[in-house]
Write a structure and sequence with these properties.
43% of the residues lie in helices and 11% in strands. Helix 2 links the parallel strand 1 and strand 2. Helix 1 crosses helix 7, helix 1 packs across helix 8 and helix 2 crosses helix 3.
C-alpha cells in the first residue's frame, strides 16, 4: 500500500494501530511461506472466499497440478453467498477462468477442514489419482490450520500451502469489515492452538510475540469466531 496518501474518512481504520499491528503478526503467522512447486493434486478448501477458486485457477494454469478437488458444502456463514454449496460455486468460478472440467473434482459434503481433507482424499482415490504431494489452497489466514490438519489426517502426503497473495490491508478491504477479519484471525489461531489437544491436527509452535498479540486481541473483545464461545 502506498505511503503518505491520505485515506478517505469512510475508509479510515476502526481498530487501533496497536491492534492492527497485533493482527498483522497473527496474519503473517497463519501463512506458511511455502515455495510453490508441482504437486500430484490440489484441494481448494471451501469457505466464504472465492479467492480460493481464483488462486486455484492461476496455479492450474501455471502447471502446478493436473487435478483439483473443490471441497465444501454449506455453513451458516456461506449459505447466503454460495447457496448451491461452496465447492459447486468454486467449480463454476474456476470454469469461468479457463480450468477444464476434466481437471476438477467436486466434493460437496464436507462441513469442516478435517472432512475437507478426508473426503477429498477418498474422492481422489476413487478417481485413480495417486497422491504423494498435495497443494492445499485456502484463505490466506487458514494456511497453517489446513497444513496442521492435513499433516494429521494424511501424513504420507507432502503438503504445500498456497493462498491468494494479499496483505492484511487488502484482505480487510475485500471483506469490508475490519473487526470481523480480526475476529477470524483470532479464531483460527485459537483452533491452531486447541485442535491438537483433540487430535484434529498436529501441533504448531506459536512464537511468544504471536501468542501475546492473540491474548491482547482476545482481551480487547475480538472473539466472535472462537470455538465454544
Amino acid at each position: 500500500m502506498s505511503q503518505g496518501v491520505p485515506v478517505p474518512e469512510h475508509q479510515q481504520r476502526q481498530i487501533t494501530d496497536e491492534q492492527f499491528h497485533d493482527a498483522t503478526l497473527i496474519w503473517n503467522y497463519h501463512q506458511m511461506g511455502h515455495e510453490l512447486r508441482p504437486c500430484s493434486a490440489a484441494i481448494g478448501l471451501g469457505s466464504h472466499d472465492l479467492g480460493v477458486a481464483t488462486t486455484a485457477a492461476d496455479l492450474y494454469r501455471a502447471g502446478l497440478f493436473p487435478v483439483v478437488v473443490f471441497s465444501g458444502g454449506n455453513s451458516p456463514t456461506t449459505r447466503a453467498r454460495f447457496p448451491r454449496g461452496e465447492a459447486v460455486h468454486y467449480r463454476e468460478h474456476a470454469l469461468s477462468l479457463g480450468v477444464p472440467d476434466e481437471a476438477i473434482l467436486v466434493e460437496s459434503k464436507a462441513a469442516n477442514t478435517g472432512q475437507n481433507i478426508t473426503f477429498s482424499r477418498e474422492l481422489l482415490a476413487e478417481a485413480g489419482v495417486e497422491v504423494d504431494s498435495l497443494l492445499l489452497i485456502s484463505k490466506p489466514y487458514m494456511e497453517r490450520r489446513s497444513y496442521a490438519t492435513c499433516r494429521k489426517l494424511w501424513p504420507e502426503a507432502e503438503v504445500v500451502c498456497a493462498s491468494e497473495p494479499l496483505e492484511l490491508d487488502d484482505y480487510i478491504k475485500s471483506i469490508g469489515d475490519e473487526k470481523l477479519v480480526v475476529d477470524m484471525l483470532v479464531g483460527d489461531l485459537q483452533r491452531v492452538i486447541e485442535y491438537p489437544k483433540s487430535g484434529f491436527a498436529v501441533e504448531q509452535n506459536v512464537p511468544g510475540d504471536v501468542h501475546d498479540a492473540y491474548e491482547r486481541l482476545l482481551g480487547a473483545g475480538f472473539d466472535s469466531r472462537l470455538i465454544n464461545s
